[in-house]
Amino acid sequence: MITNQYIDEMASYSRWQNENIYQCCEAIGREERYRGIFFGSIHDTLDHVCVVNRSILMFLHGTLPDRNPPGKAVWVELERT
């Protein structure tokens, strides 16, 4: 059975892993993040991770997330903060 404690632990782990990934990407620079991979680039892959994480959090709080339109980067918003 999935408990609230388990969800909290997994969210904390995910946050820790995301921070590590973002630090690595910051170290390689913006230009290096744009490589031809599944989502087009490391940058766009991380944006996908942000969208999924945000959608899961909204769902857990009882709201349905809006569809994220193609080309609307969530990670850009996070980089500004």
Explain what this protein looks like in three dimensions.
The protein is mainly α and 81 residues long. It has one domain (4-80). It contains 3 helices and no strands. It has helices at residues 4-28, 42-60, 74-80.
Task: List its salient traits.
81 residues, DinB, 0% strand
Concise summary:
The protein has 81 residues and is an all-alpha fold. It has one domain. 63% of the residues lie in helices and 0% in strands.
What does the main sheet amount to? none
User: End-to-end distance, in Å?
Assistant: 36 Å
Number of helices: 3
- Average pLDDT: 77
Order of helices and strands: HHH
Uncertain residue segments: none
| Number of structurally distinct domains | 1
Tell me the structural class: mainly alpha
Shape: flat
Strand content: under 5%
Radius of gyration: 14 Å
Number of strands: 0
Helix-residue proportion:
55-70%
